[in-house]
Amino acid sequence: MSLTAHIPSHRKPRRSASKVALRAGVAGGVLSTIGVAGAAGPANAEPVTATIEMPTITADLANTVAVSAEATQQVAHAYDLQAQQDEAAAKAAKAAKKDKAEAERKAEAEAKRKAEEAAKKKAAQEAAEKAAAEERASRSSERTTLSASASVGSSSSSASSPVATGSAAAVVAFARAQVGDAYVMGSTGPNSWDCSGLVQAAFRQAGIDLPRVSGAQSSLGTSVSVDSLQPGDILYWGSRSNSYHVAVYVGDGKYVGAQNPSTGVVERSLSYDMPTGAVRVL
Predict the structure, then answer these.
(1) Which homologous superfamily does the CATH classification assign to the domain defined by 144-280?
(2) Angle CA(259)–CA(261)–CA(262) in degrees, nearest 5?
(3) Domain regions of the chain by residue span
């Protein structure tokens, strides 16, 4: 009689191949143990009739094993993800440190450039101010010299060539001292003029207050012919009392006037731009 004849059947519904294989392995091991024991016992031993309960792998145990394996995988995945995040954070920190250093270097270079530009501008401004001061001093000296020359000339006038004397000499000297100044519409000095502003300032040196505009200036005094001019006469262009330009006659067929923005204050011959007429207020 077979040793397994009295082992009760524990058949259950069909399970997966892995569970069946596992069960078969356990049963085979038990049967082998029983077979060996039977072979080693006495020949007249009674047949084994005890029922042996086989261990059963339940669905709960299988689920527990599966859940444990899944949990292990999740933990491993979490460690891997944390490692990736740590590496990314380290790279980001390194890049940020590099960017900060570069930004600081650029800021320092920009600050240095601006400081150099400011120093250059300051030096240029100081040089310009020095040049302007020297120019003003030179003009002041020139005006003093011209005034002295006019005074000397008034004492040695000749009948053949009228020379500015007295108040006329002061007017002429002042007008000539402004030659080279800029022309600026509406300006009355000291370094830029328009035509009537220059004439008004020149006659102020002789103690005479003229109107501000050229039309009013040309309406004053006595009208004189261009052929009989004397130093200090006011020349005008246009019509008397409605002139558009004025200048000061300085003698020797010349005049001084603030011409236009391109020429500034100049001394020119009458033939350069013959005036319409003249008036004498001295």
Answers:
(1) endopeptidase domain like (from Nostoc punctiforme) (3.90.1720.10)
(2) 90
(3) 17-72, 144-280
- Only one residue has tokens 């261990």, namely 55
Of the pLDDT bands very low, low, confident and very high (cuts 50, 70, 90), residue 140 is: low
- Tens digit of each residue's pLDDT (9 = 90 or more) over 111-121: 988 888 888 77
Q: What angle do CA 121, 124, 129 make, to 5 degrees?
A: 125
Distance of CA 176 to the CA centre of its chain: 47
* Integer angstrom CA distances of residue 247 from 108, 188, 235, 276: 59, 14, 5, 11
Question: Which residue is associated with the tokens 């569970």?
Answer: 19
User: In residues, how long is the chain?
Assistant: 282
Whether the pTM exceeds 0.70: the reply is: no
